[in-house]
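User: Hi! I have a protein structure encoded as tokens and I'd like to know what sequence might fold into it. I'm fairly new to this, so please keep things simple.
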């Protein structure tokens, strides 16, 4: 195991198996004692003394923890899945020529659900074909959706939405990123959260209000923790249409788009900014009828929130250590809201604080 202490907790990572195992301070103590070859009986005895609990409760807690570890993070690693696959014939696919962040690209898309999910994201970026271009391919094969960069298969996804995310991430990052968060971003603030959390609606409102736009759905972070610009349209579900129409004249004319799942309308990004420094990380949760509340998070709670919303980090000791050091340092918050203007105001304040901190002169003691 690779071990990464933070605050009073511990992150464990298996060298051959991507994924974080996040231990709270109590679990971290058990792990450290176990690493000294203490038996379950010795661990329980130490727990009884340390936390003043009865021996039976300590024994049960220790045994349950060790059983969970043996079935999870200490279980044998599955064999790695090969991504080797031949690139489908381009004659069977439909090409889209586009330019992303100044780079010409040609994307070959399978028909049906793949085209419906991805093509609308590329429409505003189309250019005439015929020039040298980086080539991507997205096609279905044997029940999977494959994504290729040139001749290299970079992903085998179960869902077309997953393939779309991988494709767009690869299109904006010419070098391997350090981390990718399931997040949008405006004004130096990343808005993380799962589907239906309200992050895209909030991001669209902030962008329509003039805040510099970085990304929606995927925040691709470079090794110096700058977020790559993602100039693709934002997909907004029906529940947010009226809210964004009131803020964006362009969105009022946006047509409905058929796709797998609920219908969406796309908002073309404006004032795209990046690569941009990140000043704060906010985990967004829309909850009908709730008061707007912005709550500070420590590193442990932020890691749990990231695990819930979705994230990826370069699988190396140095990369993980660098990411955790950044996460410990950056301001982290939970934002719960039901009224969009209140949430906008909270994020704008964070964006202003971030801009002030970046422009403030260094003080040398």
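Assistant: Happy to help. Inverse folding works backwards from shape to sequence: for each of the 365 positions I chose a residue that suits the local structure. Here it is:
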């Amino acid at each position: 195991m690779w071990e990464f202490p933070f605050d009073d907790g511990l992150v464990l990572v298996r060298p051959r198996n991507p994924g974080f195992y996040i231990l709270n301070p109590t679990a971290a103590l058990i792990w450290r004692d176990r690493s000294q070859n203490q038996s379950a009986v010795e661990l329980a005895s130490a727990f009884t003394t340390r936390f003043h609990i009865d021996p039976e409760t300590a024994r049960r807690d220790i045994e349950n923890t060790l059983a969970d570890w043996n079935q999870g993070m200490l279980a044998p690693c599955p064999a790695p899945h090969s991504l080797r696959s031949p690139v489908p014939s381009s004659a069977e696919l439909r090409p889209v020529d586009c330019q992303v962040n100044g780079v010409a690209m040609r994307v070959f898309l399978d028909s049906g659900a793949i085209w419906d999910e991805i093509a609308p994201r590329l429409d505003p970026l189309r250019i005439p074909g015929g020039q040298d271009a980086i080539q991507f391919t997205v096609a279905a094969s044997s029940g999977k959706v494959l994504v290729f960069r040139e001749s290299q298969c970079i992903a085998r996804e179960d869902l077309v939405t997953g393939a779309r995310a991988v494709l767009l991430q690869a299109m904006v990052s010419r070098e391997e990123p350090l981390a990718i968060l399931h997040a949008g971003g405006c004004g130096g603030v990343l808005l993380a959260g799962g589907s239906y959390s309200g992050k895209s609606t909030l991001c669209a409102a902030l962008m329509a209000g003039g805040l510099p736009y970085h990304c929606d759905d995927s925040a691709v972070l470079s090794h110096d923790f700058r977020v790559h610009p993602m100039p693709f349209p934002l997909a907004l579900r029906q529940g947010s249409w009226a809210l964004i129409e009131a803020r964006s004249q362009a969105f009022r004319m946006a047509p409905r788009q058929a796709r797998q799942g609920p219908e969406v309308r796309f908002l073309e990004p404006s004032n795209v900014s990046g690569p941009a420094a990140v000043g704060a990380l906010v985990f967004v949760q829309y909850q009908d009828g709730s008061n707007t509340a912005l709550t500070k998070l420590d590193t442990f709670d932020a890691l749990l929130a990231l695990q819930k919303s979705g994230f990826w980090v370069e699988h190396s000791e140095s990369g993980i250590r660098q990411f955790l050091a950044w996460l410990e340092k950056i301001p982290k918050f939970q934002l719960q809201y039901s009224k969009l203007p209140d949430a906008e105001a909270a994020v704008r304040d964070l964006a202003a604080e971030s801009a002030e901190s970046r422009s403030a002169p260094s003080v040398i003691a």
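A useful reference point when you look it over: The longest strand covers residues 134-141. Feel free to ask if any position seems puzzling.
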